[in-house]
Target: histidine kinase
Amino acid sequence: VKAELARSDKLRTISALAAGVSHEVRNPITVTRGFISLLKQPDLSDDKKNVYTALALEELDRAKQIITDYLAFARPSPQQLEALHLEEELSYVKQVLQPLASLNQIELTVRIEDALLWGDRVQLRQAFINLLKNAIEAVQPYGKVEAHSTVRGNQVCIVIQDNGAGMAPEDVQRIGEPFFTTKEGGTGLGMMVVFAVVKSFRGTVDLQSEPGRGSRFTVTLPLHKREDL
Ligand code: ADP
Ligand code: MG
Model:
């Protein structure tokens, strides 16, 4: 019954998002179309040609990224609930993101106290990839990103902190809102996915952030119980 509920929640979000996705994808396509028509001008300087082409490509990449992020969320993969080892899943996530961190000379530390969770493996990984990717993007270039977890009673707290840009209070309010992004080429879908996944695990997300100092996300998840089986 719980899985059913989570699924109908997700379906509602997927349809609500579809309109937003078409809108957000139509914009860059319209802009790209504009730049391509400009390229047809007969005596256009090479400089202008390069600028228009670069802008058109950037816009297309953004459209593509929105579709990719949306589909990562909406793809009809049925939820597969199983017992998961937090340590195993987070070391997978670290492996995925290490190249991005190294490329930007970012120190990525993951210290996990293992915990047994109940939920969908792909979703859990996706949520932590999104959180850590944001942290890495916030500290670029250089900087530190750290994830650690502690088991307390029947739940586990996973803290992800960075010493990066931080967020203004008005931006903290908007985090997780579909398409809210402050990044050039951002999609504003990553945190929405994080909130949806954490909700499906019946957990919570807490955020503390200070502009110029960094952010700290605390994800609290209930441990796997015998009744979940
Ligand atoms: P995107 O990364 O595509 O912009 P997200 O939904 O992942 O979309 O994040 C939305 C916004 O939240 C980001 O654009 C950024 O402004 C803010 N944000 C998220 N995580 C962090 C962080 N660790 N530090 C600073 N800002 C963050
Ligand atoms: Mg993101």
About this structure: The radius of gyration is 20 Å. The mean pLDDT is 91. Strands lie at 81-85, 107-111, 116-120, 144-152, 155-162, 204-210, 214-222. The chain has six helices and seven strands.
